[in-house]
Amino acid sequence: MPKLVIVRHGQSQWNLENKFTGWIDIDLSPKGIEEAKKAAEKLKDFKFDKAYTSDLIRAQRTLDIILRENGMENIPVEKDKALNERMYGDLQGLNKDECRKKFGEEQVKIWRRSYNTPPPNGESLKDTADRVLPYYHSKIEPELKKGKNILISAHGNSLRALIMYLEKLSSDEILRTEIPTGSPKEYILDDSLNVLETKYL
After folding, report:
1. CATH number for 73
2. Is 69 a catalytic residue?
């Protein structure tokens, strides 16, 4: 049975500074590096056949640390912007608390937590799912169907879109789902790629 493990990148510098990051290419914070190392420790007994990550450095570095710490630097890695974080448009680079003062608590909550409503010039979670899921179906599912063990290092919202599909969650359920940084989540799948078991490691 194939295994799929997903991990949200370790804390980035803008996570630390409470800024909307989106597609801005911000590196890990020192804490984020440590979170990636802890993720690597949790995955030390796993053997992966292939890994996937986004086009952004914080997810790539998290993956690099996990693979290096576990002597798996030589497995194939595919990088693609389809796995990028949700694009936050005009909010990118702005402090979240300052945005609440400027636009109002309720409006920022709608932008962050509604399924269909994007921030100005940005993506909704639905928009993010509309690029993540076709990539998953075309690139990752065929590898899982071959029985390969796959690792994905990506972002809160791109992984939220994937979790919604894998766990058959409603749009309300997924918006209440928090994904901690640097905490691998394992999916054990049957041969038809239905989820038999899932857990944070």
Report:
1. 3.40.50.1240
2. no
